[in-house]
TrEMBL record:
Keyword Membrane: no
InterPro entries, per database record: FMN-bd (IPR007329), PplA-like (IPR049652)
Record-linked Pfam families: FMN_bind (PF04205)
Transmembrane segments: none
Low complexity bias locations: 22-54
Naturally occurring in which organism (per UniProt): Lactiplantibacillus dongliensis
Signal peptide: 1-21
Region span, Disordered: 22-56
Keyword tags: Signal
Name of the protein: Extracellular electron transfer flavoprotein PplA
UniProt KW NAD keyword: no
Source organism superkingdom: Bacteria
Every FMN-binding domain range: 73-168, 199-290
Amino acid sequence: MKFKSVITGASVVAISALALAGCGSSSSSSSSSSSSKKSSSSSAKTTKVAKSTAGAKMKAGTYKLAEENYSHGYKTEFSITVNSKGKITKSDYNQVNKKGKSKVDDTAYNKQMKKVSGTNPKTYQPKLNKSLEGAAATGNVATIDVVSGATESSKTFQNYAQQLIQAAQKGDTATIKINNGAKMKDGTYKLAEKNYFNGYRVTFAITVKNNKITKSDYNQVDKNGKSKVNDAAYNKKMKKISKMDPKTYQPKLNKELEKSSDPANVDVVTGATHSSDTFVLYASQLQNAAQKGDTKTISIDNMTFAD
């Protein structure tokens, strides 16, 4: 499965059909193959860098992110370098132990994971980095494939890459600290996109109590604040094309997050892949905010791209 999200949008060519179908080709956890049944790597991949049509261009500089806690002996360190043209020229995603040794160089770990899941850090880490330096170089996270056998690490990469891109858009070079594995603090955490795509933008809020997400409110609203759920014409047309509609998938996604309290356990809704992936990405970022207890609304200067 290719990760696609509203942050990156879809091609302006035939966007109506693609958007309605929800098939535009959107966690904070360590490497695992446990959720590989939810996603698989796409075999076809372009290296063409798409042109951004909305959202601020990334500013030149080096942007860093670091997990604060070790999981199974490793934590993530991640940096991207952006040139004067707003393109990512270097992606350095790594998982290191307390001695600073990369998981790539852990022979025993690589051998065991390869045997169990068919891939290993020596394979997927360089592959993910290459994807961000290639077709995703202008911030088009939608082009990043989930690596089969390393689903959770891939989704973590997507989440962290997006946070680094957001920092680069602002020119904020302060290291992003991720309090991974920490309990979520009580409170309400909010996120909102700035730019509209096909007339809608995402607003999202979660309420946390006793380390549980007790309420999830993911929505797509127009300039009048009207929810896509209430757009009868849109729902009817999407239902006809993909046998799914916002009236069905939005409540389903919210309910799944409230049930599991973990974005990694939210399944993609058939017929609404695009929105499902966006939901998981943004839920992961809200989870990170809740782990830090940061209730400031996250403003997403979401990008859209043309072929």
